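Section: Multi-chain targets

For targets with more than one molecule, the full set of components is provided together so that the structure can be written out for the assembly as a whole rather than chain by chain. Components appear in the order listed by the source. The example entry contains two components.
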Amino acid sequence: MVAYGLWVINKAGGLVYQKNFPVPTIPDRGLAPLTSNEYLVLAGTLHGIHAITSRLSPTGSGSGAQVIEGETFKMTIHLTSTGTKFVLLTSLNDGTAEIMLQRVYEAYADTVMKNPFHTLEMPIRSELFDVRINALFSNQL
Amino acid sequence: MTSKQYKSIGDDLWKSRTEKINAELFTLTYGALVVQLIQDYEDYAEVNKQLEKMGYNIGTRLIEDFLARSSLGRCSDFKEVGEVVAKVGFKTFLNITPVVVHIPPSSSAPGQPPSGATFTLTLEENPLAEFVELPDEALEGGLWFSNVLCGVLRGALEMVQMQVEATFVSDVLRGDDTTEIRVKLIKYLEEEVPVGDD
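Its structure, encoded as tokens over all components, is:
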């Protein structure tokens, strides 16, 4: 299983963190880098889609889409009770996306939330968070 | 989830998944903070407000840590909120388990949102206020020494879409028999946040 990218979206639908992971086994593969504006638009669109899918549940209330699969990738969305979305883009043959997202959530709670100078819902500019994320996904290097 | 299950989750989180610090250091730090606020503001009502605001900032951040570590889903009703707050929340962060008493809303027409539901937390021990004795002016001024806790509750619950009012009802530091916090649900916040399934 290979992770291609990680997004963190705040409860208003704004992108607060985005990271692409290099795929060393296949040179030049991995996600094509987009401009930061394009990432913002994609995240906002995903947020909207997620909100729509949450209303489609036939059994009353339910969460929105959790896994979106394409031909070449899988997107796993972890929605926290506080409205923050953690989105992981991985290869199709992945089985550990949920677990990795849980660990990302723990890293977020530790390094981002506990930094008193971080303003909530704002873009994440935390070196500690970067270090933790790199460590989490370094096993594919 | 039964009350017992929450208790065991709380115990487990306290034992294995939290870093510990020296309790005296914590008590001293908080005490120094309150005294400094009193010196700065010189008005006990204002100090209460500032403590609550600080607690609010702590609460909005603490909830993420709590949710990340406990992996608990949404509570089905306000009664469950009270159980989780007392048995898992307080246990995880302060290693105390306040006694929860639920007070259902006085009367609500069918189909109305269940606002007004209340629970009270009775703290048998309060690590923030060990060895503290309030001076007469503080007593007369109406200081709630541990008011930061009310802010934490308000901030944390607001981040999970509940607007609550948390206030101290009594405090042994003021000579009352018990230390009691009353948490009242004002309303559920309807945002565009999809409800997570449990």
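Helices of chain B lie at 3-16, 23-41, 44-70, 78-94, 136-141, 148-159.
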